[in-house]
Amino acid sequence: MRHFRQLTPERRSALFHREPIEFTSDAPASTLAVALGATLYSPATRPALADDVLKQAARGVVSMVLCLEDSIADAEVPAAEDNLVRQLCELADRIPDRVAEDELPLLFVRVRESGQITALVRRLGAAVRLLSGFVLPKFTEDHSVPFLEALTEAEAACGRRLFAMPVLESPELLHRETRTQALTGISRTLDKYRDRVLALRLGVTDFCAAYGLRRTPEMTAYDVQIVASVIADVVNVLGRADGTGFTVTGPVWEYFRPQERMFKPQLRQSPFLSSRAEDVRAALIEHDLDGLLREIELDRANGLLGKTCIHPSHVAPVHALSIVSHEEFCDATDVLRPERGGGGVLRSAYTNKMNEVKPHRAWAERTLLRGEVFGVAREGVSFVELLAAGVK
Prior knowledge:
CATH superfamily of the largest domain: Phosphoenolpyruvate-binding domains
Number of helices: 17
Number of domains: 2
CATH class of the largest domain: Alpha Beta
Radius of gyration: 21 Å
Distance between the termini: 22 Å
Shape: globular
Helix content: 40-55%
Structural class: alpha/beta
Largest sheet: 7 strands, parallel
Number of strands: 11
């Protein structure tokens, strides 16, 4: 696997100062958690699920969730399970060797009940080699243990490493009077099963539902103050950079079709002055992706990495804005130079900011890891060019 492998070598060379690394599903969890990027969700009821996985892999998708929970009706679950098993077995038959297997996205199944984990692993047989793990719904201290124990049992049965991606979406996290207790309990559970947890996902749609809210395409999750406060507290407790935290991924962006706007587009015209760039800007606005771009930037500013996606058009913007800029790379490498181990302050190579070695060290380490996985842009390459490489 490799981010942006859908681009030609010549195009990658023109865009990147350092190209993204190649990795496999056996890579360290620290690498895979960053590499998730735009995690594309797909209902397990889709009749051509195997073809969908191959098609999205060719388009640059690196992680997918095959969903047996909220994306399908309750009555569809048995048929969805049958279809999932059938499609993954078919996909395994079409993947002849490990080289081809490593070109597939990281595949996860979102379950409803803990028993589905062991049952699906048993039914998949040899095709379980295509799975990287399971997405665990409504994760709380009380609700989570059966899922994590089932994951442990399934892993032992199939002899393959299987990761958990808990979804934080329960009302206990939202309500002020129970939030601290809920986060403390989740932290205890996650610490006990730390080696099995790849990343934490945020169920912002469920948070909004608890109060009958829904944000418009012009509003990010951070404009809904009650949601923003939960995100802040989750990162505060579970996303720390002191070695105790986990990767927390950004919330889903719900919009992908044009509709009437109440507000002006949020993308400034000045970065899109060329005719090709203006076409990119028009495409982003047409598909309501200008709000998505703003939310991605706010995700990172608030300690989140990667994003839940429900439409393929969201993948390219998420990945383009995950690339480390040349300026970020220069700042991070300066901060981490061995001779800077004693601390101090230095002027940035771009002469536009202060880099303080000790306070910026954790940021620099995270930035360079992101640069390994998503690449480092060449000097002078703008985010517009990176977007243009992937936006259709």
